[in-house]
Amino acid sequence: MIVQACLNGARPADFHPDLPLTAAAMARQGAACIAAGAAELHIHPRNADGSESLEAVDETMLFVRQACPGIPVGVSTGEWIEGDAPRTLRRIEAWRDLPDYASVNLSEQGAADVMAALHRIGVGIEAGLSSTDDAERFVAVPGFSQCLRVLIEVEEQEMERARHIVDDVASVLVRAGCSLPILLHGFDATVWPLIDLADQRGWSTRVGFEDGKLLPDGKVATSNAMLVGEAVRNMRQPKIAMAGAITC
């Protein structure tokens, strides 16, 4: 079980005063998150104008590697970043300073091609699943078991429905014989309830401004590192085991 720090995502510049939009800021905040207990980093590299870019991966990785030596670092490959499937593949295949892994959203039409490109260049894959349809698509991909891990990513804001999504996705993975590690995370209202659920099920989780800016008490966190520190403390507290928990 680990806590991954997700520093920025697709959030706009006005989401939080400390949202990291430059390679230097991502490196600095990444180091602070590692000091707060995060085991890995997930970042969305940005251009000089603050927009997301797969072309910015090389420069960003140089900064982050220097600030966080030996720490696994991942990036997103979301189709919205380049807005064009062929260009997305070209950008990935042009990387020289490789991330350790990259997230691939199975809801996106070109997911299988992106996964194949990442395999070719030796970058690990986090398979992002937000529905049972995503899970079915994932287990139908040849060699899905070669991925690094599964991300169960829930954007549903009502917790009971969110939990049903988690259970349904996990059930598909179990039926397919999946033995990959799972990282579960929520978004905004479900960030902390799903961190608790991940802890109860022995899964990894993540936290940071990509997923939300509020602490469990509803106050706005001053930094990504503050969110990470709270999640790490939360996951170290003794918990009552859940009956009938689904594992993969």
From TrEMBL:
Molecular function per GO: 3-keto-5-aminohexanoate cleavage activity
InterPro entries named among the record's database cross-references: Aldolase_TIM, BKACE
Cleavable signal peptide: none
Pfam families xref list: BKACE
PANTHER family xref list: 3-KETO-5-AMINOHEXANOATE CLEAVAGE ENZYME-RELATED (PTHR37418), 3-KETO-5-AMINOHEXANOATE CLEAVAGE PROTEIN (PTHR37418:SF1)
Protein name listed in UniProt: Uncharacterized conserved protein, DUF849 family
